[in-house]
Design brief:
By secondary structure, the chain is mostly helical. It has a domain at about 40-104. About 50% of the residues lie in helices and about 10% in strands. The protein contains four helices and two strands; from the N terminus they run ααββαα. The longest helix has 23 residues, at about 5-25. It is flat and about 85 Å long.
Amino acid sequence: MSSELIKRMQFLTQRVKMSYRLTRDRKALPMEIRATSKGQIVIPSSIRRNLGIKEGTPIMIEENGMEIILRPMTRDYIHSLRGKLKGRGLMKALIAEKKREQNL
């Protein structure tokens, strides 16, 4: 292969890597959806695919002022929470509360 062809292939490979990085790290653009008369909405398939939402996936809903926050409870999300509350003594507090309940 000629050196010009090799340089061209390296350039294209670099662009593909940059493009992949940009699309992977970029947040999705806002989309407008409408609620039904029952208050139901449809999450676009591209978002469901990106977040790993499948039929039956539990989704937490939170109201934050004028915003609604939806958090799918997928395996990846649960794993991301590991260690967040480490060292806060929550287990000791839970055990103490259970002992108080037993004494009542």
